[in-house]
Model the fold of this input.
Amino acid sequence: MINLVIVGSIGLDDIKTPFGKISSTLGGSAVYSALSASFFEKPGVVGIVGRDMPQEELKALKNIDLSGISKGEKTFRWEGKYEYDMNEAKTLKTELNCLSNFNPSLPNSYKNAKYLLLANIDPDSQIKALNQLKNEPFVILDSMNFWIKNKKEKLVSAIKKSDLVLLNDGEARQLFNTPNLIKAGRKLLELGPQYAVIKKGEHGALLFSYDSFFSAPGYPLEELKDPTGAGDSFAGGLIGYLAKHNKTDEKTIRQGIIFGSAIASFCAEALSTKALLKIKISDIKERYEVFQKIREF
Amino acid sequence: MINLVIVGSIGLDDIKTPFGKISSTLGGSAVYSALSASFFEKPGVVGIVGRDMPQEELKALKNIDLSGISKGEKTFRWEGKYEYDMNEAKTLKTELNCLSNFNPSLPNSYKNAKYLLLANIDPDSQIKALNQLKNEPFVILDSMNFWIKNKKEKLVSAIKKSDLVLLNDGEARQLFNTPNLIKAGRKLLELGPQYAVIKKGEHGALLFSYDSFFSAPGYPLEELKDPTGAGDSFAGGLIGYLAKHNKTDEKTIRQGIIFGSAIASFCAEALSTKALLKIKISDIKERYEVFQKIREF
Done:
């Protein structure tokens, strides 16, 4: 039985940064999230890949259940580029391929899961997956600017069904047309979720709940090599930590956010998934301790 | 005897924001810094004003020694505007007036001060003021993009003579031509100061020392009305706190940064100096306690 389900994209990425490039490498929101969550709890991944996906790529995913992955014709492909300031990916090409008519179908062994991460993917797919879970899981939803622009209404319905919504700073501002992140965070809560998290990259993350606020510092990274998947790793680390401890109170969420931030910081230090495939839980715990020291006063 | 000296500009400001405007109001880096420092220790201000400065404006400065202010012909004037996102002031007009040939002269009662804030002003004036202090004070230096662009060499000499250097994120990136704030912070230390602080506005502030790093959260402000002087208030609060406790160890500096952040957050909630003239030390302490809660995990 799988207790943590992650729904999202699985793709082959071409990434260019000022520090290197990589072609046709395993990527996608479900991949980064699952790799990150797997440090705490074995996740089951729901997604779709084509026949062109090299078998050895998927085999790299240890401690991850792959039985929720369906087969299509051609794998989703994304080509992106980062400029010198590394702030935001510039998408050069997106080929949805088999993702364009993806109809998520959960194995029976996934349907009683208590934790569900709806990683960035079409909000229609997010809702279809969510409806297959039987026991009202704790739902974390992530998204991106593309869906805010093109499927805002559907995305808002999906947010309403989630317990914790994650957006980055630009997306939160875009969704509510405000420059103020504190306002945007409060407005996310008004949609229904118990918690809202705004990811701010190098500046850390903000957690909003009805009567509380938490500001997580950013990890002091001197060598940022490739931010691809850092936000997905953050989400995966957070939900993996919650699932492991089987708690969703605010204290555990704050800790999960710091673990998610620690993993995301490793993710950004190497191209694509390279760092996530290399680090150990002891490395992550070491960074968690650094986080404790850098916010003491 | 004055134990805390603040050198900087004193001016009359015209400020426009999407939330209101104000004309010919008392401003300048020394004014905001001194108002903020005065919550902890009576500062002596070194600056220059013209005959056009209304006497009642300066009288509003309680618990601040004004005997270091010299008289010139016409007061420095600044006209600035903030757009909807409130990120950065757009300078519409600057009239240096009597500030253009300002030769700071410290009263004898200032010369044994143990704490010196070189608030934003021409680095030549900063160095001239510093050279008049007798007992190697603890020196905090602030500056701005204008001096980085136009007097970089002189500014760097001034930084080398300071113990703690303060810049905002944009200025730190500009000075070292790097997008990475952690790198910029380390490079500031290489110039000589024992501490470097990078102010990040809503994202808080970073403190660098040789073997340590501190990340201060931003205060969750929903109503940002006018950021003018917030950075100066931060600097004044920090040095005021150090002077009051007569300590410059890292722990005290971390606490001073939080007090400076608390005062800066009030400053940004109202036009020009309005909030600084209204709040009490109990208001500031209340926000300090909020800062403690929002970073717990």
Summary: Residues 4-84+91-294 of chain A form a domain with the UDP-N-acetylmuramoyl-L-alanine:D-glutamate ligase fold (CATH 3.40.1190.20). Chain A has a mean pLDDT of 96.
